[in-house]
Write a structure and sequence with these properties.
The protein has 276 residues and is α/β, with parallel strands linked by helices. Helices cover 43% and strands 17% of the residues.
């Protein structure tokens, strides 16, 4: 299973001259040296990606993920999924050392994370003008998650309603303002579980401030975003995290699986029983 896809089909890497100029001035090196160094560092980080961002393969690994997620109360979850936009100001021309920045666009980062906010799989590069669910379903990440054999049948990921109900993807019940108490409780627990991916995006953007002021070619931006994701996991693996205390639930419950709708109903019954 691939752990990342980076859509860099637009152009070869172009210099982010403003950033390289800053590096050049701070370290007293030539602009060309600054550019080559930045490019080399990003490429070297990306070489670590297959070892650092990866999906589980064994059922025991999926079970461990589910046990960790169960502190939020939702059973058998092995990942939280969502997408976020990262603003990039794109140059109109690269013919001289002073870019004229023509327009801003958003690159979409779609990611799957575990309960510790560690990234399991990412897709970078498609414009955020497309809907998250469309990007997901068309990406190698989405095609992998939605494949019948991608996840052992008793497990699933959680996502918001836009991604659609699937045996591998559990979403909330539609809420038009009059949900029964048990469905409202289900949605609240689902939301609490899913929000770990939102906190993951927040951590990545707050730690790597470069993602808040990107002014470069799209192809270079996709590589920087992916490299930041790699570094995010390395930080977590090194213990450089801000812990969040969640009261533990009792042992993780294994549910039988049929269709996606039936599967969600089984989870609803389980959550109702734990509330009694």
């Amino acid at each position: 299973m691939t752990a990342i896809t980076v859509n860099s089909s637009t152009l070869v890497i172009k210099r982010d001259l403003l950033f390289c100029r800053t590096v050049s001035q701070q370290f007293g090196i030539a602009m060309s040296t600054a550019h080559d160094t930045v490019e080399m560092v990003v490429d070297n980080i990306l070489q670590l990606l297959p070892q650092v961002i990866k999906m589980p393969r064994q059922e025991s690994e999926f079970r461990k993920l589910a046990d960790e997620f169960y502190k939020y109360g939702y059973p058998n979850v092995v990942g939280a999924l969502d997408g976020t936009g990262i603003k990039v100001t794109v140059p109109a021309s690269d013919k001289n050392d002073y870019f004229t920045y023509k327009y801003s666009t958003n690159i979409n980062l779609t990611a799957l994370c575990d309960a510790k906010k560690r990234l399991l799989n990412i897709h970078v590069g498609q414009s955020e003008r497309n809907h998250d669910s469309h990007i997901f379903r068309c990406s190698p990440l989405g095609k992998m998650i939605l494949a019948d054999n991608a996840i052992p049948p008793q497990f699933h990921i959680v996502a918001d309603a836009a991604y659609g109900l699937h045996t591998n993807v559990m979403i909330p019940y539609p809420n038009k303002g009059h949900l029964p108490d048990e469905l409202d409780r289900y949605n609240n627990i689902h939301s609490s579980t899913r929000m770990v991916i939102e906190r993951t995006f927040g951590d990545i953007k707050n730690r790597w401030l470069r993602l808040q002021t990107m002014r470069c070619e799209l192809s270079f931006a996709t590589k920087i975003i992916a490299a930041c994701c790699v570094l995010h996991n390395i930080c977590i693996d090194s213990g450089d995290i801000t812990p969040t205390h969640i009261p533990p639930m009792s042992g993780c419950h294994v549910l039988s699986v049929r269709s996606a709708t039936t599967k969600r109903q089984d989870i609803l019954r389980h959550l109702s029983q734990t509330n009694e």
